[in-house]
Amino acid sequence: MGDTVGIVGFGSYIPKYRIKVETIAKEWGDDANSIVNGIQVYEKTVPGLDEDTITISVEAAKNAFKRAAFVEPARIGAVYIGSESHPYAVKPSGTVVAEALGIVPDVHIADFEFACKGGTEAMFVAMMEIRARIFDYTLAIGADTSQGAPNDALEYTAAAGGSAFIMGRENLIAELVDTYSYATDTPDFWRRDHQPYPEHAGRFTGQPAYFKHLLTSAKNIMEKNNLKPDDFRFVVFHMPNARFPRTAARKLGFKKEQIEPGLIVPYTGNFYSGASPTGLSAVLDVAEPGDLILITSFGSGAGSDSFIFKVTERIKEVQDKAKKVWDQIRDNPIYLDYGKYARYRKKILMNE
Is 84 a catalytic residue? Predict the structure, then answer.
């Protein structure tokens, strides 16, 4: 099959706990309607007391294995997890995940971090190792329990969730057509060691950071492959809120029906490293054979990874073998008041 590589299995995990934007706004005396209209987000997920990047990664990977049942865990040659909320500063998340899934001990493991594009970093390396024929199968995960300081703008969107992808050369459900990355030193968002919450440069994170990198990356990969927006069935952009990816899609010439199926953020919040991967998982849930998908991530600091995937005939065999993204979003969410939400977040931060 030459250099043909891509996705053979995919899965996601979304916590059931939620808090509404209006609940957070009421706590701080903010205008909920103004905030919702500005960020176009209504509610976000909250990790449970026993949930972190590791548990989210394990659950997402279990769903990916359901869609790639022919892959024995022992055949996974590498496990890569992209996150900016790894529970340990030194101990890797990947060893725990690989042990829980039965992948150890003959495996290469690494944790990745590049703000919100850690997940696509893991996907890139996992696919390139398949292309280089180092391994038969690899596992790439993007997951986060995102941090946002109380009464900070990020508190309205920082959420929890993630997705996992098993990469290979055969039995593909989505073939990698091409990939392209674009990065510069643009310090729009950061968190120093020993600080529990990140800082950000406010509006600076918009035009010179998110839009410059994401739009350039998406434009360049389309030009490189002689493709235009109308050639794609779906497009997935990193979603720190809903306004940014919708604006980016409009600027590039994409239509509403191309961006909306993967735009989960209005009802989940921002999964950081798991955001664009989970958007990709959502569109794979409904994709048809022959569909072209463009996904472009964004990570502060700053950079974007773009991928073009072509969906294969096998997609119809696997879509119903694990719970779909939008079904998880809608499946009896449990809403928290601000007091319980604060207790949950305090517990998570203490554990992290």
Answer: yes
